[in-house]
Every structure is written in structure tokens, then in C-alpha cells.
Amino acid sequence: PGYVSVETFAERPPVVERICALIDKGFRPCDIMILVRGATDGAKVAAELLDFKRRNEDPRYRFDVMTQEALIVGNAPVSSFIAAALRLALNPDDSLSRAVYNHYLGSIRLLSPEEAFERIVMRHALQGDRRQTAYLQAIHEQIISFCATKIADIALFLRWWEETGKNRSLSVEESATTVEITTIHKAKGLEKRAVLIPYCSWSPDPKSSGTVQNIVWAEARGDGAEAIGRFPVRYKKAMAESGFSSEYYRELVYAHVDNVNLLYVALTRAAESLHVFIPQKG
């Protein structure tokens, strides 16, 4: 026995509403898993759930959010603010950081990273923003851990932050009150009683714009082709009407197959559950 629901939505998938409905039916938060295609969609869902958690006053719908892909510490505004303040402490003329943090605080440059962090938090009452509390605690823990392993100053911490710290995920331990968000690829072997798949409306075509650079390998044709051999070409629709049309359509077919397989994997994960909700933008 089970239940599958496929619905359309205009602006955002009603994930919070469906979680609350599942809880009303007797499901626990830990019975619920949210599948997303990638970290971008996961971050949007996580932000919405965390915002609901901050606003919610009904004890029936209290839950935490657990994800290893979406909640990157460095993506939080409070993290960027603290990093900018530390950079300005070292270099008051840093115009980029000044745009983020337009006050002084140059006097903290001689403090330890932990003391500087506390001074920044107290100076601007950052602890008062409940939406940022988890991120604030995460960066504080990183600073404490970093300073405990070496003789650290602000410059060393900032170097470590750029290379490692800001890319770490916000960790939440699994418990009966946690709703898990994970990518389709990482959901193998996970079993939950209820699965939600928001944003299940991705295009089957290869990405060919924005920040994504989709490169295909093309064969040279004509005189001197043997000497040139294969070379990289950026995938775009104009290739369809060019000498690279065969490569264009080959990449198009591969992308369609990959995306159909991705949907199949998502539905396979969902088929192991009792309750499946799939919103589609329409």
C-alpha cells in the first residue's frame, strides 16, 4: 500500500505545507526525505524550511533540517559579514570588503581570531538574528577548532577560511525531529516512509548559458583535418546549423538520456516509500 501525488505549482513548491500534512497523518519528521537534483535546489528548500522553523509557533510542526549538500557555512550572509570584517581589520583600504562592511573595526587586527569574532558579534548584535544562529555557531566552532591546533592570527584563519572553512556544510545530527534533504545521486540505499521531490521540472536539454560551460569534443573536417584531430567546442544551439551539427545532436541525445535516467533514479527511490509527493512547475 502507498500513495503518490503529482501536483503543479506557480511560484514555489508547497514543501512546508506537505510536511505539515504528513505530520498530521502520523509521520515523524525523520520519516520524511526531500530529494533534489543539486545543491542549488537543496539550498532553496533548506532556506524555506529554516524560515518556517523560525516563524513557527505550533509545537506540532517543530522539526530540524539535515543536509550535507545545501547548507554551506560560507553561503550565509552572517559568514560573509564576519569574513569581511576580519579582512578590513587587516586592510582598512580593502574596497570590496568595505562594500560589505562600511564601518571601522581596524583596531581588532591584533586580536586572536576568536576574540575578533566575539568583538564583531557583540558590536553588531549578530546573535539577535535567529535565522543566522546556526551559521553563527558553525563559524564560531570553526574558529575555536582552528585556533586550538596552531598559533593562529586573523590572516592565517582567513587563508584557511577561503580554502576550506567556508565550503564546509552545516551539520545537524539525525534524530526523530530531522527532515533530511539530499540529492538524488546520494539517496541510494536510503529508505524513508515519505519522499518529496520538489522542482521536478528540469529541462532535458544540456545547459548552454549562464555560468555553466558545457564543452563537447568535435572532429575537424576538410583539408588538414587529420593534423588538427579532435578539439573542444563550447556547446550552444548555433552548433545545430554549423559544421558541428553531428556533435550538437549527439550531445543533445546524451543529455536527454541522462536526465531521463536521473528521473528514473528519483522515482525508484520514491517507489520504496509509502507516500510520495512530486510538485511540478506548471
Layout of helices and strands, plus pairs?
Blueprint: E1 3-9, H1 15-24, E2 32-36, H2 39-55, E3 64-66, H3 77-90, H4 95-100, H5 113-124, H6 133-149, H7 154-163, E4 178-183, E5 194-196, E6 215-219, H8 225-228, E7 230-234, H9 245-271, E8 275-281
Describe the structure.
The protein has 282 residues and is α/β, with parallel strands linked by helices. It has 9 helices and 8 strands. It has helices spanning 15-24, 39-55, 77-90, 95-100, 113-124, 133-149, 154-163, 225-228, 245-271; strands at residues 3-9, 32-36, 64-66, 178-183, 194-196, 215-219, 230-234, 275-281. The strands form 2 sheets. A 6-stranded parallel beta sheet has the order 1-8-5-2-4-3, sandwiched between helices. A two-stranded antiparallel ribbon has the order 6-7. Helix 3 packs across helix 7. The chain is flat and about 60 Å long. The chain starts with a strand and ends with a strand.
Main attributes of the structure:
6-stranded parallel β-sheet; two-stranded antiparallel sheet; 9 helices
Helicity, as a percent range: 40-55%
Mean pLDDT: 76
Question: Helical stretch count?
Answer: 9
- How far is it from the N-terminal to the C-terminal residue, by CA? 29 Å
Oligomer: single chain
Radius of gyration: 24 Å
Report the order of strands and helices. EHEHEHHHHHEEEHEHE
Give the DSSP E fraction (strand runs of 2 or more residues).
5-15%
Structural class: alpha/beta
Topology, number of strands = 8
Q: What is the compact description of this entry?
A:
The protein is an alpha/beta fold and 282 residues long. Helices cover 41% and strands 15% of the residues. Strands 1-8-5-2-4-3 form a six-stranded parallel β-sheet, with helices on both faces. The chain has a two-stranded antiparallel ribbon with strand order 6-7.
